[in-house]
UniProtKB/TrEMBL annotation:
Keyword Coiled coil among UniProt keywords: no
Protein's membrane topology: Multi-pass membrane protein
Record GO biological process: carotene catabolic process
Location relative to the cell: Cell membrane
Name assigned to this protein: Probable beta-carotene 15,15'-dioxygenase
Length: 359
């Protein structure tokens, strides 16, 4: 076998730093595809109530702690001035998003969908940078296309393959802020679905075709090809509520762990042992343990405090739906609200060492 062919072979567990975690994420999606494809073949249908429970378990119990860790790890060893500015911008963007949802909930829903695409796409792009490489992505436009395709799988594919469920939950999310607010655009949903499906399909072909032409045999293109098609298959086969609920803990978060593993720990730092989290760099293990406990408690109070505030401000926090379906809609909106600054402030603003940092 030639060197080119050998290096281009896709392995379930890539031979790179963080490869084991990448392998776990790939295996998890393959297993879910097999389970739900099999269920479809034998005529077994998972109820929406059951899907909602799976979603809540995945997004709240499994994935939420990782989001907090990303910010916590990013803010360590940063100056107090930077930390305060970071938190201020974070809270300001949350307030702006909440205001948009109350003033124009349909636009707010569109922004929420865009946030999910940006988070999945750009987060995934940085995982590629840190692990098996992106030498087949040779321009900024090509990198943007790759991010759009990877992130777009999270929303565009379910919109096409599970239109009724997607529309139902979209309507409930809008109803949290304006009952019946999606009615005006609902008649266009079927047309939009086909346009999104065709447009996304064209982007996938462009991304994979251009990547093939610019591949150099290092294996990065083969890995990208495999994972892109895996994501498309996953969101096409697994029911959308389960797919989204398990995608973030089993794919997004797991792969960010792989990125962290691959990144050298000896990175450039703004400060050493300074800032509001300086206690975590103390030589006294008791202080470190106490500080870590305090950060965990403060983060939990802040997160669920914001959720409680949104609940109190909304006249119909469940959007008129029953438990647990209403909770899925509420949590989807809430997690989008805190995900906006997660992307914009945590990564795009903090270009020196953001949450998706790769040296």
């Amino acid at each position: 076998m030639s060197e080119h062919a050998s290096r281009s072979t896709v392995r379930l567990v890539p031979d790179v730093a963080g490869g084991t975690t990448l392998g776990v994420s790939r295996a998890a999606l393959l297993a879910l595809i097999a389970v739900f494809a099999g269920a479809t073949l034998v005529g077994v249908e998972v109820s929406l109530q059951t899907q909602a429970v799976v979603y809540l378990f995945g997004m709240v119990a499994m994935n939420l702690p990782h989001g907090g860790f990303e910010h916590f790890n990013n803010l360590r060893r940063r100056t107090t001035e930077f930390q305060l500015r970071y938190v201020g911008l974070y809270l300001g963007s949350i307030a702006a998003f909440v205001a948009l949802l109350f003033l124009a909930p349909v636009a707010g829903l569109a922004l929420a969908i865009s946030v999910a695409v940006a988070k999945g796409g750009h987060g995934g792009l940085h995982v590629m940078d840190a692990t098996y490489g992106t030498d087949h992505l040779q321009t900024n436009r090509q990198r943007a296309l790759a991010a759009l395709v990877r992130g777009g799988a999270v929303m565009a594919v379910p919109i096409f393959f599970f239109p009724e469920t997607f529309h139902t939950f979209s309507a409930i999310m809008v109803d949290i802020f304006e009952p019946g607010g999606l009615t005006a655009v609902s008649p266009y949903f079927d047309t939009t679905r086909w346009l999104i499906g065709a447009g996304y399909g064209a982007l996938v072909v462009a991304h994979l075709g251009l990547g093939y032409l610019r591949s150099s045999g290092t294996g990065s293109y083969a890995a990208d090809l495999f994972e892109t098609l895996l994501l498309v298959a996953y969101f096409a086969v697994v029911p959308v509520v389960v797919a989204v609920g398990l995608y973030f803990p089993l794919w997004y978060s797991a792969r960010q762990v792989a990125r962290t593993t691959a990144v050298d720990d000896d990175t450039a730092e703004e400060s050493n042992g300074e800032g509001l989290l300086a206690v975590l760099d103390s030589n006294d293990t008791r202080l470190v343990a106490l500080g870590a406990w305090g950060v965990l408690i403060a983060g939990s109070i802040a997160t669920f405090g914001l959720a409680a505030l949104l609940w109190a401000l909304s006249s119909r926090p469940l959007g008129g739906a029953t438990l647990p379906i209403g909770l899925v809609a509420f949590w989807s909106i809430f997690i989008s609200i805190i995900a906006l600054p997660h992307v914009v402030i945590g990564s795009w603003y903090d270009r020196d060492r953001g949450i998706w940092y790769v040296p």
